[in-house]
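WARN retry 2 of 3 for item q-0093 after timeout on previous attempt; input resubmitted unchanged.
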Amino acid sequence: MNEPHPVRWKSMIGLGILSVLIGLFMLFLSSVATQLIIALSGFAIILLAAVFLVEGLCIEADGWPRWVVLGLGLLGILLGLISIIAPSLLMVSVGILTGLFLLLYGVGELAIGIGVIFAETMVRMIFIMLGIFSCVLGIFFMLNPALGLEIFILLFGMYLLVLGLMRIAHGINEREAEQNAPVKRL
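OK item q-0093 returned
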């Protein structure tokens, strides 16, 4: 049922090596990785805005007027160009928006933890602790968005490193299972 397959172990090892390399890049060159991610985000914003522009030129349906879609496309292209020219602006705005999201999420978790009466005490305490942690993290991101994103890049790099090592180990295990599998003849 779950027999080893040569493509599976090779792809596991290949993806593991790629994850390890990207993780090490993010860990040791985190500021470069942050700038690269922001530049790629700016390029993606420009591509999506170009789609909006084309849709705005070709729209014939009811709903949003053509000028709104065209305006969103032009605004997106402007935002993408600004993020490529001055990546620190996008970094700060993404950090502030992430902090605002975490703060609102934390307030919601606190409200659930305090307001839910039919749940057990332990479940309510978990909601309250998650809410407090999210609020603190959100405030930290809003006060220092650049450092918050740098820390996020470092944590994501560690995640990719561990994931890659686990994939490599699993691929080696699959390879050994393939070598030890009995040969089937038709």
